[in-house]
Design goal:
Layout: H1 3-6, H2 18-21, H3 48-51, H4 63-74, H5 82-94, H6 99-114, H7 122-125, H8 127-130, H9 143-166
Helix pairs in contact: 4-5, 4-6, 5-6
């Protein structure tokens, strides 16, 4: 028995049937789906990323550059072993990069190594791409940390004053 023999055939819609007369795919009595339209660059609203040019990697203390040079130092050809990847993810977190941005910087340097760029030159070759990774801003210190630190400093100063004037 063939596969097609198991299913009854569905007769084609006749031109007199209401489904054939309605050109919308929704059918009679149902709302037509919204039409799709192509959106070009000129239709899109300019967002904050479109307004700002990519930030140059201009100094040796730039977190993106630090991570890129560390990545090049830990690469074995274009290969990065899992232990070194974990180290680089920790470095990225320490310099304030998100895990996604850290992985992106690692991939950019690895791509340069895969293309045959010598490892010491991979960060410089990846610099045009590194510009598109947002530079982390200064991290906000929680107010509790500031308050506790200030109280500890005042307590230490008071203890020193008591010791100085009574001793």
């Amino acid at each position: 028995m063939s596969t097609f023999a198991r299913f009854p055939s569905i007769p084609p819609a006749s031109p007199a049937s209401p489904a054939a007369a309605d050109p919308s795919p929704a059918g009679p009595g149902r709302p037509a789906p919204a039409r799709l339209r192509l959106v070009g660059r000129h239709d899109a609203a300019p967002g904050p990323a479109a307004a700002l040019p990519p930030e140059r990697v201009s100094e040796a203390t730039d977190p993106r550059w630090v991570l890129a040079t560390r990545t090049a130092a830990l690469l074995e050809g274009p290969v990065l072993v899992p232990e070194n990847r974990r180290r680089l993810l920790a470095v990225g977190a320490a310099v304030g990069l998100s895990p996604f941005d850290t992985a992106l910087v690692i991939a950019m340097v690895q791509d340069q190594a895969r293309r045959g760029v010598p490892l010491p030159h991979c960060p410089a070759a990846a610099e045009p791409q590194l510009r598109h990774v947002p530079r982390p801003r200064g991290r906000k210190v929680p107010w509790r940390t500031v308050a506790i630190g200030s109280l500890l400093a005042l307590a230490a100063e008071a203890a020193l004053a008591v010791w100085w004037f009574t001793g």
